[in-house]
């Protein structure tokens, strides 16, 4: 069966076609980053309007790339939540309208389930159960994943998400919006050890995180320094060293506590090269396997939604065209067969 996936939860319009036997056939993405940059953050109303403009052209483009037509589509998956209500409504209503017109079922997908399952699109996917480090722009959590929809939260951030910490720190260092990738590029040119920043909650004994204090520590440090290019690089390096160390230590602790030896890294911060290199080096030494999505599927995309939709439809065939959006939605509340 061919599943059309539509992602519109925030500032990326993603569309993809995943075939349950043939795998991912095509995908396309439009990022609204340039449009929101002058405001320094996502403007919800502008995001919704742009999704309206993009979804159908991207769908046509994706069908063409895959060599398929609308009539080949057997089901439609869209992001039901969490995210911006208006942006979600665009994807939901277009999915419902297309589903009604094509007489195919429509299924709402949890955006974080999409992120979490994205590594399963790779050639050697991890088997269940595994531990997932889900580090995105709005979330940072460690989950025990026993199967599709069987998600248990082991720990989570008490304040900022890891991606949010990257973005806010980049902003205060004058690296623009959204600054995560820019900050990590500067960190790669930084001298390790010139500055030392705290590792928040590293010894807390649980699997929770806290990143807002780290951002404040960067602010204090930046005020004490003359911010020449090399100093910015060195502060970026100190920040990245701190965040990567906390994420790796807690991931290892989660593997230890759950007795599992497979770690999946998902979400936008999973694109961070230093994090990937550190986890890969540790996995060889400590005898666990680590799995990542390919870089373009770490951040938001339609492929992860089409894939999650295909997995869900295998469990419980979707029916009908009624649609819903859930701007706030806890991943651990998902049920394995709830559609
Ligand atoms: P959520 O999925 O929680 O709703 P989101 O969809 O905005 O949030 P993602 O698209 O998964 O988040 O990821 C975007 C985040 O990833 C941004 O905060 C961005 O700065 C961060 N990010 C992307 N690339 C990198 C990188 N190389 N290093 C660090 N952070 C990065
Ligand atoms: Mg985004
Ligand atoms: Fe996301």
UniProtKB/TrEMBL annotation:
List each copy of the Gcp-like domain by range.
24-307
InterPro entries recorded: ATPase_NBD, Gcp-like_dom, KAE1/TsaD, TsaD
Gene Ontology molecular function: DNA binding; endonuclease activity; hydrolase activity; iron ion binding; tRNA N(6)-L-threonylcarbamoyladenine synthase activity
The top EC class, named as a word, is: transferase
Q: Is Membrane tagged as a keyword?
A: no
Enzyme nomenclature, EC number: 2.3.1.234
Locate the residues binding Fe cation: 111, 115, 300
Which annotated residues bind substrate? 134-138, 167, 180, 272
What cofactor is this protein dependent on? Fe(2+)
Coarsely, its chief localization is: cytoplasm
- A single BP term in Gene Ontology: tRNA threonylcarbamoyladenosine modification
Q: Does the keyword NAD apply?
A: no
| Reaction equations catalysed | L-threonylcarbamoyladenylate + adenosine(37) in tRNA = N(6)-L-threonylcarbamoyladenosine(37) in tRNA + AMP + H(+)
Q: Which HAMAP family is this protein grouped with?
A: TsaD
Family membership noted in the UniProt record: Belongs to the KAE1 / TsaD family.
Report what the protein is called. tRNA N6-adenosine threonylcarbamoyltransferase
